[in-house]
Each structure stands twice: as structure tokens, then as C-alpha cells.
């Protein structure tokens, strides 16, 4: 008799964004033609920039010509894209060899796949509030999960405790959902902790391009000691609008080893066994992101989202509501007004002003009583949503 993976039975019955979709669908069925102001799921609203589109078209044309046609791509990534990513890091003072960069189909895929490198007996520390997939992917694997909670008192930037023991450590900076960003000093504490305890940090840098305060690190590899304890996973989804195109990259330093096993070598084996590489067309589009013109264009798009964040922050400041994030992140995380629970506040905004956000409870128990807005929406919708919320909550 086939025995399924029984750990799937340990997952929560419903997923955060599935619940949100169900609630919004029910609302629209009851209110046909209603316009929703969507500040919830972090999908982008601006199209791919012109330089990327041009590169994609050129790559499609290549596939129509026998002399320029590309079949299977190198499983670990096209040399031209691995080199472009390494060059991007070099501009920030981080030296990588091209073969320390692995091209992926996106950060979400890679955050799950990378767990193949670690035995199911490894314990996992999740700094919360956190992206739900960190927890769920490890529940599926049957790992022991430790929850390090945070709150207003530490700015939602938890630091290691001396008594903690964990094999894998998830850190996201700028953080999803809170938008908080670790300082160099704070990341150094985590790096030192990991090296002292033999842990490996899985560093989610999906939102690094939104950091505008140059005193803050974009990459964990800007921190001394990180090359012996960290893997960095990044994405072009929010940086360059690749949510529907799917492309990212992972950095695994050659120095990273445990129990005489080299993680860079292991990942080469994993990718060459389990994948046939990312599409040539998509990788050509991705390489265009790292050109001078591509960088200029994506910064223009990012500025639109940052302007949206400022609109939301201004509204919260006017209402006197505590928040974090926004300045260096596409997410604004704030305390629900009047002591409301996060799902109660979700229902209140949806039913009263048709604004859709994300309840903090869905990111961990310590997120209860907080709420997340995304700045990836349409600018006019964001302005209108902020106006409606300000009017609604000013009455209360």
C-alpha cells in the first residue's frame, strides 16, 4: 500500500492568500460591479520595462533562426546571466565568481527547492512575522520548526538569543510582511551566531532593490563572515516586474560547507539532476535588467511603487497609527486601529470601503493585531484607498 507524505496533514486547513481570495470573491458575488482597491497580494501592476521587452523579442527571433537557436540551457544558468548578476553584486562591493550564482525560475520556487540540501532532521528557525511558505515548506518535509517572534519593541527585527539552537535560519530583509530592514550591525549578529553554531542562514533578498537608505545592506554578503554561513535567494519579480515571467537567482559561496559536504557542489548536482534550466528567452530578458538602461528603467518603475508607499504612510501618519516599512520596502505594516483583530479589520475595510489588504495573523501569531498594505497597486487606486481609509477611520 502506498504511504503518502503524512506531513501534509499537519498543514493548516487554509492558506492566507486563498482565504483572502475567497472573501473577496464572495464580496464581489454579493456586490456585482463593485470596484475593489487591492492593496493585498504583492503582485506588480506595471509592465516589463522597454529594455526587457526588446531583449525578449530578440530572443524569440533567435529561436526562429537555425544559427541562433537555443535548445536546452545550462542547468545552473546561462553564462551571460550568471556573469551579469555577479557584476551587479560587484557594484555593491560583493565579489562573486560566476559559478557561485545559480539562475532559478523565481525565489518562491527556490526557497522550497533549496531545502533538498538539508536533512529532514535539521531544525528550522523562522523569524516571524514571516512569509507563510517558509513554515509550510518545512512542515511538508517534517522538520522541527522554531518560531522567533518579534514586535513593536524591537521594530519587528528579532535578534538571536544565546540559548537558541537551530540548523537553518530564515531571514528576509527588507522583510515580508513588515517592510523592516536589518542594519549591518544586526545582520552581523546573525552571521556571527550562525558561524558559532554551525547554522546556515537562508537569506531572502527579494526586495533589496527597494532599499534607498545606503547605510543598510542589500545583501547578506556585504557582512563579514557570511560566505561561510549563508545562502542568498533573490528574485526579479518585484525588482523588474517578472511576477508573470518567473526568474530569479541564488548565491551559494564555495566556502559554505558542513560535515565535509560543499553546498555549492551539492546544488550543482541538484540542478543538473532535477532541472533542464530556465528558458533562453526569459534569461535574455533577465540579462537586460542588469544593463545600464535596464537599471534606469526599473528604478523608474520602483519609484512609482515607492510613491504609492509614501501615500499610504502619509495616511497612517495623519491617523496617528503606528507603522513600519514603506521607505525601504514595498510593504507598509501597521497596527490595526481600536484594538481590532487583523481579520476583523480586513472585513471592516472590505465591507465599508472596498479596500483589500492582508491580515497580519496570516504571517504568524505575533502578526495578530497588525495589517499589511502592498504598494504594488495602481497609483490612482492607492490614492483613493488612502483617502477612503482616512475618512473612515477619522470618523471612528
CATH architecture grouping of the largest domain: 3-Layer(aba) Sandwich
Can you give the mean pLDDT? 96
Query: In percent, how helical is the residue content?
Result: 25-40%
Question: What is the count of structural domains?
Answer: 2
Number of helices: 12
Calculate Rg over CA atoms: 21 Å
Shape: globular
Walk me through the topology:
Elements: H1 16-30, E1 37-38, H2 50-62, H3 79-90, E2 101-104, H4 107-113, E3 124-127, H5 132-141, E4 145-148, E5 168-172, H6 184-197, E6 200-204, E7 230-235, H7 237-240, E8 248-251, E9 257-258, E10 261-262, H8 263-274, H9 280-289, H10 292-319, E11 323-325, E12 331-335, H11 342-353, E13 355-356, E14 358-359, E15 370-374, H12 379-395
Parallel strand pairs: 1-13, 3-4, 3-5, 5-6, 6-7
Antiparallel strand pairs: 2-8, 7-8, 9-10, 11-12, 12-15, 14-15
Helix pairs in contact: 2-9, 3-9, 10-12
Structure description:
- The structure is a single chain.
- This protein is an alpha/beta fold and 396 residues long.
- It has 2 domains: 6-48 and 294-395, Aspartate Aminotransferase, domain 1 (Alpha-Beta Complex), CATH 3.90.1150.10; 51-292, Type I PLP-dependent aspartate aminotransferase-like (Major domain) (Aspartate Aminotransferase, domain 2).
- Helix content is 39%, strand content 14%.
- The protein is built from 12 helices and 15 strands.
- The chain has helices at 16-30, 50-62, 79-90, 107-113, 132-141, 184-197, 237-240, 263-274, 280-289, 292-319, 342-353, 379-395; strands at residues 37-38, 101-104, 124-127, 145-148, 168-172, 200-204, 230-235, 248-251, 257-258, 261-262, 323-325, 331-335, 355-356, 358-359, 370-374.
- The chain has a 7-stranded mixed beta sheet, with helices on both faces. A 4-stranded antiparallel beta sheet has the order 11-12-15-14. Strands 1-13 form a two-stranded parallel sheet.
- Helix 5 (132-141) links the parallel strand 3 (124-127) and strand 4.
- Helix 3 runs parallel beside helix 9 (280-289) and helix 10 (292-319) runs parallel beside helix 12.
- The longest helix has 28 residues, at 292-319.
- The chain is globular and about 60 Å long.
- The mean pLDDT is 96.
Amino acid at each position: 500500500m502506498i504511504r503518502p507524505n503524512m506531513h501534509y496533514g499537519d498543514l493548516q486547513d487554509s492558506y492566507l492568500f486563498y482565504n483572502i481570495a475567497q472573501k473577496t470573491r464572495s464580496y464581489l458575488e454579493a456586490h456585482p460591479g463593485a470596484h475593489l482597491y487591492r492593496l493585498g497580494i504583492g503582485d506588480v501592476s506595471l509592465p516589463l520595462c522597454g529594455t526587457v521587452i526588446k531583449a525578449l523579442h530578440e530572443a524569440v527571433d533567435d529561436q526562429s533562426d537555425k544559427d541562433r537557436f537555443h535548445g536546452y540551457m545550462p542547468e545552473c544558468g546561462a553564462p551571460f546571466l550568471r556573469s551579469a548578476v555577479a557584476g551587479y553584486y560587484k557594484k555593491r562591493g560583493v565579489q562573486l565568481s560566476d559559478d557561485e550564482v545559480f539562475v532559478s525560475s523565481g525565489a518562491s520556487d527556490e526557497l522550497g527547492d533549496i531545502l533538498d540540501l538539508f536533512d529532514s532532521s535539521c531544525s528550522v528557525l523562522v523569524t516571524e512575522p514571516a512569509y507563510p511558505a517558509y513554515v509550510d515548506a518545512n512542515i511538508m518535509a517534517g522538520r522541527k520548526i522554531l518560531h522567533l517572534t518579534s514586535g513593536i519593541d524591537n521594530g519587528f527585527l528579532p535578534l538571536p538569543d544565546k540559548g537558541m539552537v537551530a540548523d537553518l535560519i530564515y531571514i528576509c530583509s527588507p522583510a515580508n510582511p513588515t517592510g523592516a530592514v536589518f542594519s549591518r550591525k544586526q545582520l552581523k549578529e546573525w552571521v556571527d551566531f550562525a558561524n558559532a553554531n554551525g547554522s546556515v542562514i537562508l537569506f531572502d533578498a527579494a526586495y533589496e532593490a527597494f532599499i534607498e537608505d545606503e547605510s543598510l545592506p542589500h545583501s547578506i554578503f556585504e557582512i563579514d563572515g557570511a560566505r561561510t554561513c549563508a545562502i542568498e535567494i533573490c528574485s526579479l519579480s518585484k525588482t523588474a516586474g517578472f511576477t508573470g515571467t518567473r526568474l530569479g537567482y541564488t548565491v551559494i559561496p564555495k566556502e559554505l560547507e558542513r560535515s565535509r559536504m560543499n553546498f555549492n557542489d551539492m546544488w550543482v548536482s541538484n540542478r543538473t539532476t532535477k532541472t533542464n534550466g530556465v528558458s533562453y528567452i526569459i534569461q535574455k530578458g533577465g540579462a537586460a535588467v542588469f544593463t545600464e538602461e535596464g537599471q534606469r528603467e526599473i528604478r523608474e518603475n520602483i519609484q512609482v511603487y515607492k510613491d504609492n508607499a509614501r501615500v499610504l504612510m502619509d495616511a497612517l501618519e495623519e491617523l496617528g497609527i503606528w507603522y513600519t516599512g514603506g521607505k525601504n520596502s514595498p510593504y507598509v505594516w501597521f497596527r490595526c486601529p481600536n484594538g481590532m483583530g487583523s481579520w476583523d479589520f480586513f472585513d471592516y475595510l472590505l465591507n465599508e470601503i472596498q479596500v483589500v489588504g492582508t491580515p497580519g495573523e496570516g504571517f504568524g501569531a505575533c502578526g495578530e493585531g497588525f495589517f499589511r498594505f502592498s504598494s504594488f497597486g495602481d497609483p490612482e487606486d492607492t490614492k483613493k484607498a488612502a483617502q477612503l481609509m482616512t475618512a473612515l477611520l477619522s470618523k471612528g
